[in-house]
Amino acid sequence: MRVLLAPMEGVLDSLVRELLTEVNDYDLCITEFVRVVDQLLPVKV
Which stretches are transmembrane (predicted)? Predict the structure, then answer.
């Protein structure tokens, strides 16, 4: 059985997904979505 870890914005961040894939036997871990905008980000994101 394959186990995949999908992006869950606001629930699992990249460090948690990395930890889960190292500790457990997940087959694949996908990163979160990347937002592309034509505006500068505020100083504090």
Answer: none
What does residue 40 show for φ and ψ, rounded to 5 degrees? -75, 145
Q: Are 20 and 29 in contact (CB under 8 A)?
A: yes
User: What is the phi/psi pair of residue 37, to 5°?
Assistant: -130, 160
Q: Give yes or no for a contact between 28 and 6, defined as CB atoms under 8 angstroms apart.
A: no
Kindly report, residue by residue over 6-39, the tens digit of the pLDDT. 666 666 677 777 777 777 776 766 666 667 778 8
Q: Global pTM?
A: 0.36
CA–CA dist 22, 8 (Å, integer): 18
Please tell me the distance from the alpha carbon of residue 14 to that of residue 18, in angstroms, as a whole number.
Answer: 6
